[in-house]
Write a structure and sequence with these properties.
GNAT family N-acetyltransferase, 7 strands, alpha+beta, 7-stranded mixed beta sheet, single chain
Length: 184
């Protein structure tokens, strides 16, 4: 079952996003406050309203517990000091995060394929990008399974781990500005 996110999902989303087992590859990304989950959900709700696509709340059956989130949302960044509509770079950001108990069952791959297909249908001019840490092998496998290719590898700027390497996977070659936005 795939549902658009809503504030009714707040408690379960916070439970997933605050679980240290979900963040073994990036511990500093873990949510510590319920307000962070609320802000996350409000942003994801807006993705659907603005672009017609965002993350889905994934359940095994209607009314069942939230297993995780997965989908694509448009990420935009101004290219100049002053914002103007013609100076914005954008891409579809593919993301997936699931409870540890259901990881490895294929949910991320299955829903990601659907999300990429829908993103390419809605705004085919935008690349689909998944960025992740190199030591997150499971996430790399998902990106590769759904047809994304490694486009960039570099130190992960701002990561508390100075050895962390950031990988950028995409459905096509990226321009320098698209890569800059993906790394921001």
């Amino acid at each position: 079952m795939l549902d658009r996110p809503g504030l009714q999902d707040l408690d379960e989303v916070f439970e997933i996003y605050s679980d240290p087992r979900v963040w073994t590859h990036f511990p500093s990304g873990r949510m510590a406050k319920r307000e962070e989950a609320e802000a996350f959900l409000l942003t994801r709700i807006a993705d659907w309203e603005i672009d017609g696509l965002g993350i889905w709340i994934v359940r095994e059956s209607e009314g069942g517990p939230v297993l995780g989130t997965c989908g694509c949302g448009v990420r935009r960044m101004p290219l100049a000091d002053e914002w103007s509509p013609d100076r914005v770079e954008a891409h579809w950001n593919l993301g997936y995060r699931f409870r540890p108990e259901v990881q490895g069952r294929g949910y991320a791959s299955e829903v990601s394929r659907l999300a990429i297909s829908r993103a390419q249908e809605l705004k085919p001019e935008l690349p689909v990008i998944a960025y992740l840490l190199e030591h997150n092998v499971a996430s790399q496998k998902v990106a590769e399974k759904v047809g994304l290719s490694l486009r960039h590898r570099a130190p992960d700027a701002g990561n508390p781990d100075p050895e962390a390497m950031r990988l950028v996977f995409a459905d096509r070659a990226l321009t320098a500005s698209q890569l800059t936005v993906a790394l921001a």
